[in-house]
Amino acid sequence: MVNNYGPTETTVFATSGQILANGSLHIGGPIANTRVYVLDEQLQPMPVGVAGELYIGGAGVARGYLNQPQLTEERFVVDPFSDVEQARMYRSGDLVRWNADGTLDYLGRNDDQVKIRGMRIELGEIEAMQAGLEGVKDAVVLVRDLQLLAWFTETSALDTDALSPAMRARLPGYMVPRAFTRLASLPLTANGKLDRRALPDPAPAYLLGQAYEAPKSEVEIAMAAIWARVLGVERVGRHDNFFELGGHSLLAVNLAEQLRKAGLTADVHALLSQPTLAALAAWQNDAANVQEIYPLAPLQEGILYHHLTAGDSDPYLLQPQFAFADVSRLNAFCDALQRVIERNDMLRTVLFWEGLQTPVQVVWRQAPMLVQETALHDLFNAPRMDLTQAPLLHLVYAHDPANHRIAAVLRYHHVIMDHIALDVLSHELQAVLLGNEASLVAPVPYRNYIAHVLQGPGDEAHEAFFREQLGDVDEPTLPYGLVMASADQIPGEARLTLDIALCRQVRDQARQLSVSAATLMHLAWAQVLGQLSGRDSMVFGTVLLGRLRGGEGGERALGVFINTLPLRMDLGGHCARSAVLDLHARLVGMLTHEHAQLALAQRCSALPAGAPLFNTLLNYRHSAVPEVDDQASNAAWQGIEVVHAEERSNYPLTLCIDDFGDAFSLTAQTAPGIDPQRICAYVQQALVHLVQALEQQSETALIESSVLPEAEHALLSATFNNTRREYPREQLVHRLFERRAALHPHAVAAVHGRRSLTYGELNERANHLAHYLLGQGVKPNEHVAILLPRSLELVISQLAIGKCAATYVPLDVNAPAERQHYMLDDCQAKYVLTQSAMSTGSSVRRIDLDRLTLDDQPAHDPGLPQASDTEAYVMYTSGSTGAPKGVRVAHRGVT
């Protein structure tokens, strides 16, 4: 499918591009003799990925508008980038951005972008968010008198008062309309377009606002006086909104300065996030609430990056589901979790990055957990998590009367907890639920780990190691051709517990080689990736535990210790034993650098900047469940059930291997279109072959081992190829036609324009021509060329030549004469069937069909003997040397 874009002012269309299945929807790039620019208000080009207005220049630009010189002057402006004299460009009014591949993303109309209270706002974004609310059919948002106003129609009855809170849950406060007006239908112009001028002004009762509540605390009173002075209003209440009182970005800067002069803490960012007087006053206490500040761990930096670039979604926001028997168990769980938050610094930690050279994490002294009730159908519709507000754990619940329970979702961000930390959290929760908090050992601060990381090897050592490992890698390892998973896609997932006998074989072979079982698992994964990507050298991400530098008690600390780093493996030439030992050495060497930044490691490859090094991840983790008092556990968790716990990754292919001490469990997560069950089966089969090769001390190259299970091998080799069908393989093409003509002589066989022939007529004319050709000396297996345009005569000629037991050779009437001559000479054609108006320019005997009278020729089938493996025709196709080559096709290949 091709997507074309262009306004009328640039002659039909200006850009064009092919849209690939599952690819991004873009408007392509400029067509021939067209130039496009993405410019700012000063007509300066915008960088790749940055939105600007689209200007179109080149040969397709119109002269202007008829009888509208002023509008022509506004829209058709001088093209400062062209070297053509008096070149102009058209100002489209459309917002676009460049992609790195030279295509353009269409973002909407520039008319829909407004600036209100100093903030740039896309009205279309607000309209889309409002239209997405349940019960809303149509949504329109405009600016009138410097206020955002909204109009809507309904699919079902709506409570207007509920619209503002719903929008505030999805948008920043300055993007929430001041009033919502219900309409029976949207006003339309005579052309069927929205008539924005006909939208009624909101009734006074619809204007949002709250009853005045006087400031309470000393801070609120002092701030209210400053607000009133800066905004020029008579009074300011606790719930008044800075922007709704007429504030804007410039006044926000002034207000922040006035607050600082009064000894109060504030900045513009705080005002944007806390725009009411009471909220901003409460924020004043946050500075005193800071316990400590320190840098981010390597993986935290990567998680923050993906959080900031993921748009509305977030691959690292996890939402395990719970079910509570009643409100008392819900309250007990929340109280216990709050106590665990108070015990552990990491659960009171937030991230700050705006205005900073490097991000930091800040530990708050107090961080009450958000517990919120919602409707059951909105349980998973919570807004994007704010990483600057602690704790990064929220609990949302809803009553589920149909199942006689309370359903809940515990939302937490991976930036504060890894897999082991989650186990520690569960252990502490159980102790608090049982009233045994005193039995818990003192928490280990996360700052200890950060300090150890900062004292470890520096970037120079990390770079030297990874440059040695990856310096010659100039192609990414991308199984299935996928780069990264979309954060808003739900991954496929499958689990497989390995047979206990295979588990023992893995451990036995690992012990004999003095390596860990993890080494064999990594090697099996490398085998799978090698076959999925068609490579004998591959790179994939491996998750390192990261707790070697966690200090004393690091194994029970809360936080993010794990790190993802690239592991390179070369299978070519390795037998099983040498491959295991080589990979073991690579893994051991990597442990010294387990806290290196992934971005640093990726830069050490020979790939260009920005290119992905790998798209797969292996997470090997020890998940042995500690022995617990089952009776105590049951008592602690009575009435509390974990319904579902999810894990997400931003990689399209992830394998988690859980080592339970005796058994192994595989969990594959895949992007849509990849079967996760097959991935698990591939890994299992790779392990089977690997341990067999080790047991047999095989010297066979490991790359030669297949990862396909027997069932899939049979599927590919037998089931998918079960295509055998009986057909008349011994018949001739023209004989099959003769049989059809005898059965259905009056049925239409061929149509060209207004002419048509029945099967009987077509067969009779072909017989006439065949007998004529035989009389002229055409012999079996001779090549007879056809130089005719598409016509009924072309079909007659093909059948007639077949009836002569000869081979027809079609020539393209539009091909150059030299090419036609080459084909005639190459096939050694004895005759060429054509028309008198056509020139062959060849010595080959020509037969002009339009000069023949064939009515006196016999009408019966010639019936010459011929085997079905003889040629029916020779078809010429372009050759690699430039000369066409003829393809010989037998009758049985057609029948």
UniProtKB/TrEMBL annotation:
InterPro entries noted in UniProt = ACP-like_sf (IPR036736), AMP-bd_C_sf (IPR045851), AMP-binding_CS (IPR020845), AMP-dep_synth/lig_dom (IPR000873), ANL_N_sf (IPR042099), CAT-like_dom_sf (IPR023213), Condensation_dom (IPR001242), PP-bd_ACP (IPR009081)
Q: Which Gene3D superfamilies match?
A: 3.30.300.30, 3.40.50.980, ACP-like, Chloramphenicol acetyltransferase-like domain, N-terminal domain of ligase-like, Nonribosomal peptide synthetase, condensation domain
Pfam families according to UniProt = AMP-binding, Condensation, PP-binding
Which terms in the GO cellular component ontology are assigned?
cytoplasm
User: From its record, what is one biological process in GO terms?
Assistant: amino acid activation for nonribosomal peptide biosynthetic process
Q: Does the keyword Nucleotide-binding apply?
A: no
UniProt keyword annotations, A-Z: Phosphopantetheine, Phosphoprotein
Molecular functions (GO terms): catalytic activity; phosphopantetheine binding
Cofactor(s) named in the record: pantetheine 4'-phosphate
Q: Does the keyword Phosphoprotein apply?
A: yes
Q: Which residues form the Carrier domain?
A: 214-288
Q: What is this protein called?
A: Amino acid adenylation
According to its UniProt entry, this protein's organism is Pseudomonas savastanoi pv. glycinea (Pseudomonas syringae pv. glycinea)
